[in-house]
Write a structure and sequence with these properties.
3-stranded antiparallel β-sheet, OB fold (Dihydrolipoamide Acetyltransferase, E2P), 8 strands, 8% helix, globular, single chain, 5-stranded antiparallel β-sheet, mainly beta, 2 domains
Length: 131
């Protein structure tokens, strides 16, 4: 991914921000300019909660070149506390410790690097909530 594209997407990559349609109460993450339900173009930004529940997860072994240093890594389907469902990478946990239904929280982490001397890309990942 190019640096300009990543920069344009930083709002939802760095913070959990969705677009919300007031006409049909539909929420989109990542944000979209048009509601797929009713065609409304006047969507507003809403902040999503930083916590949720892990619904399902899997380990990725084969991946794109920019993520190869991270493999294997775990991604999960997360239902945030407001009901929004998103897919995100999980961090700070052994897969052995993971189970469906655990509470998770958003954290800001390194996503990947663009070669040895290239840009470092950051974003939101999720980890189990400390008890």
């Amino acid at each position: 991914m190019s640096a300009p594209i990543y920069w344009r997407e930083k709002l939802y990559r760095y913070r959990l921000v969705a677009s919300y349609c007031d006409k049909c109460n539909k929420k989109y993450y990542p944000p979209r300019p048009v509601c797929l339900q009713c065609g409304n173009t006047e969507l507003r930004e809403v902040k999503l909660p930083n916590t949720g529940t892990l619904i399902s997860f899997t380990t990725v072994y084969q991946t794109f070149p920019e993520f190869s240093k991270l493999a294997p890594y775990v991604i999960g389907i997360i239902r945030l506390d407001d009901g929004t469902t998103i897919v995100a990478q999980l961090t700070d946990v052994d897969q052995i410790e993971l189970k469906e239904g655990i509470r998770v929280e958003a954290v800001f982490r390194k996503m990947y690097e663009d070669g040895e001397s290239g840009l470092i890309y950051y974003g939101t990942k999720f980890r189990p909530v400390s008890r």
